[in-house]
Amino acid sequence: MPSNRPHRITLANEKGGTGKSTTAVHVAVALAYRGLRVAAFDLDHRQRTMDRYFENRAETMVRRKVNLPTATCEVVAGGSEAELEERVAAVASTHDVVLFDTPGRDDPLSRHVAAEADTLITPMNDSFVDFDLIGQVEGESFKVRKLSFYAELIWEARLKRSRATIAEQRRQMDWVVVRNRTGFTEARNQARIEKALSELSKRVGFRVVKGLSERVIYRELFPSGLTLLDRGHLGELGTSHLVARQELRQLIAGLHLPGVKEAETPGPAAERPREAAGVR
Predict the structure, then answer these.
(1) Cα 255 to the chain's mean position, in Å?
(2) Closest CA to 41 of 95, 122, 4
(3) Domain spans in the chain, listed from the N-terminal domain onward
(4) Which of 35, 68, 71, 153 is most buried (CB neighbours < 10 A)?
(5) pLDDT at 279
(6) Cβ 103 vs Cβ 158: under 8 Å
(7) Strands 135-137, 144-147: parallel, antiparallel or unpaired by DSSP?
(8) Quick count: other Cβ atoms within 10 Å of Cβ 198?
(9) Is 53:222 a contact under the CB 8 Å cutoff?
């Protein structure tokens, strides 16, 4: 494919409940706030959390008579890889980013979009239960014993991409493991997970970024389709909400996505200095 194709972002983890859809929506909206045109595909056609989120966002805009940065979203209910690529090709010329949210299970299309991603984001809760998706550890030493099937799959996809990068003008895949719920992990176990992730990242080449804590605000925002980036539309916010917003901005910056410089924090620029000082 040509180098000017849309940047492809895939959020994938074969385990459910890791924050894929929440992260997907906030990433999409953050990029839209930067003026990028985002097309989103929800591959979890049974639950379709991301699609419902954007439906709720559209309804809120109509109800409140406001215009908010958003993404176009489609649900993919099965089909072949070729059929999915046809749908992606149909939006390629009018969008800068194509984002995929995948179901929390093994799925052929999920494997395909993970292998084709320019940025692969794998959210995981900060526990060895979730770590087991990418690697297995020894029961006593907690040293990494071997890669999981999923990590081997991504490793092979990255090798294949490396061989095709020059010939097909493809980007190298950036694999980012996002550690969610770090505040809910006992300190000693958190250090063990951090050490295991560091060891495994050197083997397979992913980056580790701190993600989102478990906060009620994310669940509360779903019915309205609003995000923590929608300043001026969320009402009165408490300190915990402001901390969550800063946490989100640090995550977005750490993903190194197109249109977002590492030193920047996505969202309206005017609010940054005030929030940095803890002022609403």
Answers:
(1) 9
(2) 95
(3) 7-229
(4) 71
(5) 27
(6) no
(7) antiparallel
(8) 11
(9) yes
Looking at the chain, which runs of residues are DSSP E strands? 7-11, 38-42, 72-75, 97-101, 119-125, 135-137, 144-147, 174-180, 207-210
pLDDT bracket for residue 157 (50, 70, 90)? confident
CATH class, 7-229 region:
alpha beta
pTM (two decimals): 0.86
Q: How far apart are CA 18 and CA 255, in angstroms?
A: 17
The residue-averaged pLDDT of 118-138 equals: 89
With CA atoms as reference, report the closest residue to 177 among 235, 147, 136, 133.
133
| The pair of three-digit structure tokens given for residue 190, joined into one six-digit string | 């958190």
Which helix (H) or strand (E) covers residue 153, if one does?
helix 149-168
| Token pair in block for residue 246 | 């800063």
Residue reference for tokens 């003008």: 169
What's the average model confidence in pLDDT over 231-251?
A: 87
